[in-house]
Request: fold
Amino acid sequence: MNILFVMKHRGNAGSTHAVANYMRLAPHFGHEIAIFGTPIWYIPELRFSMDIEDFDRVVYLFETDLYELLPMHQAIMLGHFERDKRLIVDTDGMYHELVELGGYDFNHESEADRRKWIAYMDALGDTVVHTLMGRSRFPKAQALPFFGYDPELEIDPVAAPGKTWDILHLGHNWWRWQEVEQELLPAFHAIRERVGRIGFIGLWWDQPPEEGPDAGPCDAFLADPYTFKRLRIETPPAVNYNDVIKTMSTARINILTQRPLLRHLKHLTLKYFEVFNADTIPLLMLDDDHAVEVYGPAAKELTLPGRAPEKIIDVLENEDRYREIVADVRAHIRIAHSYEERARELFATLENLGAPQT
Amino acid sequence: MKLVLAGAVDPWTRSVATVHRFAKWGKALGHEVAVYGPANPEMPQLPTTLDTSDADLVLFLVQVPQDIPDMPGLALMMDRLPRNRRVVVDLWGRFNETVRVDHDFNHLEKFDGHPDWEWKQAMTALGGSIVQPTLTPRRADVGSFLFHGFDPDAVVGSYASAKEAAEAWLDPKRSVHRPYGVVYVGSNWQRWTQVRAFLEGYRKAADSIGQVCLAGWDWSERPGWAVEMGIAGVDTDIELLADLRVEVRMGVRFDRVVPLLGQGRFAPVIHRPVFKELGLVTNRTFETFEADTVPVLMLPRDFVKTIYGAAALRLVPGNDIAAHLEGLLADPVGTWEAVLDTRAHLARHHSIKKRFDDLERLAGVIGRVKAAS
Reply:
């Protein structure tokens, strides 16, 4: 199959990295992958194409924005790809019931907004997948983990960059603040004198988006740069997808947070796996049972909720023991979440589009 | 027949007047005509629909990229309606090899970002057949469907005779209602070269015939976007306009065009260079004859004869615009005979009713609709 991804072009987004992995693996399965559009100069390894007729499957990948093609391009797409050649990947739980969590995070601002998304996706294709394990809570959607683990990207500790950070958090400030404010900042406050440099790398930790309200709900970008400064938390700029793992490897600990909505829906993200590629000790802001489901039993030792200060200090004081735990997790996810397996799942889904669901 | 017209209908521009004529005449002829989209409070008389599922025919009226409907409607139409019930009306000749005449193109990637192959692929995807409003499509896979047409019921000042029309035309008592010698309504997109030639030719007769009114977008200055993008063909000459005392107005809403044209003794009909090259008709081709004025056909004579009939040749100027208009004024009855004969020709051959007949034949829907009823 020649597979065309239609998605927002963002060099610093997890989905881009996942598609890059599929692009790399596809030839081993006899397939080719490209992203619809023209090349991006700073990520020359990604293949782009505007030649729609060269492809026989299309994957529309939606994040939180309803990424709309120009109508003329959409017409060409719809004319070329029959409905049973179109797959919709919903990474952010938009194809769902209205979900609102504690007055903070939500998938849609209103029922009208939700209906618009559902109508759009229903019109676009018959198969919508959510990026999760098991089954989707939304009956019309299927589950496809989509994001996976690529052992080839593991950083060898011998070749790893020097550790310039004690703690890093790598990810944009998009619906992260509640978790950071309620769990992480009190923990950092309690142990700050015992910990070296702390960094939050990504967009919008030190200032809101330049686009203003057009970027999305204000609550999604809540931040407190003053408290960050008081706790000596640094906020370097975002890095491109191909620098994520290397950057994570500059820290002894990396903390994985997940947007509350996706944590609630148990959606996987690429960061789930990248953090285990890095030469670091990942600490997970995930519920124990979900961590175990994804990473295996060893991951129970890596979860943070409810015990963040003690856990962070314990890791810094017992790094070797935690490196063994991380090795156990890696052993689990190399099998359970390999990109070879993910690629097999994706290609099987694409091959079987239009077939009756069992 | 349930006919859905899909395109960006804007009360200030492009084919909005023809769309209204289709809605009006469709209803009178027993058809159900609606424009795809939500109701538009600016055009309350225009029926709209978001449900195309039972349409006998969808006409995609394509002029600019925005005419292609957005999602999800686009997918609903393309996935659920068979191709033979989807027809693309390529109003600007996009479905051709790239044609350039002077500064005018049928594809201007610099302006809208779409090269010729995208237009062709998109139109091929949209419809099972593609038609253009010309009698002479260049491609074998394109049909002829003029789309735009003449509405005899909309003619202002239905005169019983040329003599009556001529008297009304020159009646000094009515000059308060006809303050201009010439009214041209149309935007400055690839028309300046012809408008300039008309104005310069008109100079000699301006004092005796009257002031020129130029109504449309971008006549008073070359727009900033054209300067930034380096797009020619949207030029103007403020000094020339001032020298000739030309009154420049902004664009005119579609339902005020015919009354405004009637405020002048003459109304030029000017087609873009590419349209002349491809023989494309426009709304104004026909609408100008609905106004209480004498059209001046700035068009090739063979095109005029074919579309308007032989009588209209009298309304085609030679090289001397001023002499032509003075000649028409000197023989008002003969002039109005030409206008009335042309109106009769247009009513016979280019009415909207005729367009519905063409459409049914073209789409082959007559049999299917009858069989279903």
Summary: The two ends of chain B are 10 Å apart (CA to CA). Chain B has 17 helices and 14 strands. The interface with chain A takes residues 65-66, 68-76, 78-79, 113-114, 118-119, 121-122, 124-126 of chain B (CB under 8 Å).
